[in-house]
Write a structure and sequence with these properties.
By secondary structure, the chain is mostly helical. The protein has a single domain, classed as Orthogonal Bundle (Recoverin, domain 1). The chain is built from 7 helices and 2 strands; from the N terminus they run H-H-H-E-H-H-H-E-H. It has a two-stranded antiparallel ribbon with strand order 1-2. Helix 1 packs antiparallel against helix 2 and helix 3 crosses helix 7. The longest helix is centred in the middle third of the chain and has 11 residues. The protein is globular, with a radius of gyration of 12 Å. This is Parvalbumin.
């Protein structure tokens, strides 16, 4: 499912522009600007499924690095520092990956 079916294209562009610089990514602010926080839990889970490129049921560290590209092909790669910080914030059970419920909880925290 394309992100543009769930989120406004203008919000996606604004969010990506705001975090264009390396090491500027803040997941809380990104989720707010892109419009994820306003989505229902069901729609946040649809976004998760779009970001879970290998359909494993988890967003692993390697997928997380490319999370901004999941919103738009113009998105940049996260730096290793940003990727690790994002993973640490979301991975509540310590298994090294983000499950669908962890992602939804992170978006709506």
């Amino acid at each position: 499912m394309a992100m543009k079916n769930l989120l406004k294209e203008d919000n996606i562009k604004k969010a990506l522009d705001e975090f264009k610089a390396a090491d500027s990514f803040d997941h809380k602010k990104f989720f707010d600007v892109v419009g994820l926080k306003a989505l229902s839990a069901e729609n946040v889970k649809l976004v998760f499924q779009a970001l879970d490129v290998d359909a494993s049921g988890f967003i692993e560290e390697e997928e997380l690095k490319f999370v901004l590209k999941g919103f738009s092909a113009d998105g940049r790669d996260l730096t290793d520092k940003e990727t690790k910080a994002f993973l640490a914030a979301a991975d509540k059970d310590g298994d090294g990956k983000i499950g669908i419920d962890e992602f939804e909880a992170l978006v709506h925290e």
